[in-house]
Amino acid sequence: MVELNKELFCALGNLSVDGYFIFDAQQQKFLYLNKSFVNIWELETDQIFDHPEILLKQLHPEDLGHAISCYEECLAGAKEKKYELRLLFAGREKYLRIIVFAIQSKAGKYLIGTVEDTTVARHNKIHIEQINSRKNITLEVLAHDLKEPLGMMKLAASSMEDSIAQTGNKQMMDSLAFIKDMCERNLLLVRSMINREFLKSSNIEIDKERVDLVWELRDVVRFYKRSKLGKTKNIRFTSCTEQIYLHLDTMKFLQVINNLISNALKFTDDNGFIGLHAEELENTVLITVTDNGIGIPEELQPGLFDHLPETLRPGLKGEESGGFGMGIIKAIVDLHRGKIWFTSKTGVGTTFYIELPK
């Protein structure tokens, strides 16, 4: 085997925009740091070499416990580990992706890895996810808001047909038929857009990142409450704590939450209650979506997640059912290695439970 040239390795490290490091776990000190590692942490090289614990002071307080558990996990195993952490500076955060290898040798155990500053990419992804989530909610709100006026227009046109038919005015009859047809077409168009968007969620693999679940769920409910639906329903979010961190594909998981809330809206009377709650358990997180609507009849419950046609039914105001929402919901939860189930009683309401591993 050709002997490795340390100077070439160091030259590579100094050219990289990512941070490189070698840490002696037994002596609790760094053996190597490249310039980018120091720049990412915004410290001096000597500071880190002399006092490695100074890195902990740069961490976001909410991520300190997570960082310590990541370090302990690295020491306990030999496989490659990938982590996401945040640094906190005056008025700004920095997102990091850290890849660590634990190497055991006769001299001791070493942690070797890289650090990548993902702040820009992370902010862009968050922004895109927010836009996508609000777009989906907007489509649901749009479908709800259009349903009533278009339905009334269709009903008015139908009520006029008998009277106008007696006059024999074919032009007026054709105009009424046109109005009815356009109302129906536009209602189907909006519903088709919603179904198509949700269907896309199950067609690609999930890409999980560490996110604050409480913030994401609160933002979804906040958007609903600002819409017209918030004035006709009592929509509320609660949580056992201010932050709950999970590894999720945020865009797809919020599709699940949005679809469950949308279904609750369809089957709950005006002024009814819809609640979203997040509870952190020892090894899992439990999310519940509750309503006091009409409930799911017992005969429809067994096939609810199985795409069975007999489980499909229109909402209280005639809202259409796409026929695949619940199947996709379960598929996305399964991809997150989670479980989903529900309890329901006719005339009392329904609660969906989603349990996800931490």
From TrEMBL:
Query: What's the domain of life for this entry?
Result: Bacteria
Question: Pfam families attached here?
Answer: HATPase_c
Checking SMART domains in the record gives: HATPase_c (SM00387)
Keyword Lipid metabolism belongs to the record: no
Tell me the Gene3D superfamilies matching this sequence: 1.10.287.130, Histidine kinase-like ATPase, C-terminal domain, PAS domain
Please give the catalytic activity noted in the UniProt record: ATP + protein L-histidine = ADP + protein N-phospho-L-histidine
GO molecular function of the protein, one example?
ATP binding
Question: Is Kinase given among the entry's keywords?
Answer: yes
**EC number(s) per entry:** 2.7.13.3
Domain (Histidine kinase) ranges: 141-358
Q: Which UniProt keywords apply?
A: ATP-binding, Kinase, Nucleotide-binding, Transferase, Two-component regulatory system
Q: What is the protein name given in its UniProt record?
A: histidine kinase
Q: Name the species this protein comes from.
A: Pedobacter vanadiisoli
